[in-house]
């Protein structure tokens, strides 16, 4: 039995209450599964779907990437990850293979041409990206500091430490190591200065930008050391 919010007007407490009233009136007859179908016109499709689960619904009609009429439908990846992460709270499981969420999202994007917003939960490009220095440092020390679920759990290959003007030196040092560069403290300070200067006027600091800067700074070390030696003599 499906009770849809076809125009996306409901809010979670009233949508959940509707299912509770139906159950109070009908009970839970054998062979009848309550079903929710939510649209996202007010940005509440996922929240309404989760409220329905709390109210006893055991079928959620949703779509990958939340695509659908007008503002779209409840996003499958957001619903199932919420149910997985907060399993103790909701008390249900879906059986969906979470590691297939990101690949499936990307496949649908290729088929439809409908791009996913960078800040889209779970599958957006920024869902596991960290730029603020304090966040990057926390992630390096313990990913659970700023991530409620690992990127690999939903099929995202790796988290991203975005280099920009808000980035920290620890993130830069890790990025350099991954690129094969071992920088001294002095070199790291110079590379950091150049990266932040670039970030002030560039929209994005790309990997090749970091490589170019690192190559220039680190390869200058022997000459700089020789100059310092001559100067000392």
Tell me about this structure:
The structure is a single chain. The chain has three domains: 2-95, no CATH class; 97-162, Irregular (H-NS DNA Binding Protein); 163-233, no CATH class. It starts with a strand and ends with a helix. The strands form two sheets. A three-stranded parallel β-sheet has the order 1-2-3, with helices on one face. A two-stranded parallel sheet has the order 4-5. The model is unreliable at 221-233 (pLDDT under 50). It is elongated, with a radius of gyration of 25 Å. The protein is mainly alpha-helical and 233 residues long. Helix 6 (133-141) links the parallel strand 4 and strand 5 (160-161). It has ten helices and five strands, in the order E-H-E-H-E-H-H-H-E-H-E-H-H-H-H.
* Number of continuous helical runs: 10
Please tell me what the overall shape is.
Answer: elongated
Strand order of the largest sheet: 1-2-3
Rg value:
25 Å
What order do the helices and strands come in, and which of them pair?
Blueprint: E1 2-5, H1 12-26, E2 35-38, H2 45-54, E3 59-61, H3 76-85, H4 87-90, H5 101-112, E4 129-130, H6 133-141, E5 160-161, H7 169-178, H8 185-201, H9 207-219, H10 221-232
Parallel strand pairs: 1-2, 2-3, 4-5
Helix pairs in contact: 1-2, 2-3, 8-9
Question: What structural keywords apply?
Answer:
mainly alpha, 3 domains, three-stranded parallel β-sheet, elongated
Q: In a nutshell, what does this entry contain?
A:
The protein has 233 residues and is mainly α. It is elongated and about 75 Å long. It has ten helices and five strands; from the N terminus they run βαβαβαααβαβαααα.
């Amino acid at each position: 039995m499906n009770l849809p919010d076809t125009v996306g007007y409901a809010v979670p407490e009233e949508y959940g209450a509707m299912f509770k009233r139906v159950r109070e009136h009908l009970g839970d007859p054998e062979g009848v599964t309550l079903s929710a179908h939510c649209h996202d016109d007010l940005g509440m499709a996922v929240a309404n779907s989760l409220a329905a689960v709390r109210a006893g619904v055991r079928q959620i009609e949703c779509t990958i990437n939340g695509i659908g009429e007008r503002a779209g439908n409840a996003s499958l990846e957001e619903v199932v990850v919420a149910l997985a992460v907060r399993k103790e709270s909701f008390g249900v499981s879906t059986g969906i293979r979470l590691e297939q969420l990101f690949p499936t999202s990307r496949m649908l994007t290729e088929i439809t041409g409908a791009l996913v917003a960078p800040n889209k939960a779970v599958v957006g490009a920024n869902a596991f990206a960290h730029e603020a220095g304090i966040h990057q440092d926390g992630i390096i020390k313990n990913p659970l500091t700023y991530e409620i679920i690992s990127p690999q759990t939903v099929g995202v290959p790796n988290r991203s430490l975005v280099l920009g003007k808000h980035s920290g030196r620890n993130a830069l040092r890790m990025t350099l190591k991954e690129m094969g560069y071992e920088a001294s403290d002095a070199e790291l300070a110079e590379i950091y200065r150049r990266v932040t200067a670039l970030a002030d006027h560039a929209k994005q600091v790309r990997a090749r930008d970091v490589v170019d800067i690192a190559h220039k700074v680190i390869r200058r070390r022997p000459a700089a050391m020789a100059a310092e030696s001559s100067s000392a003599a």
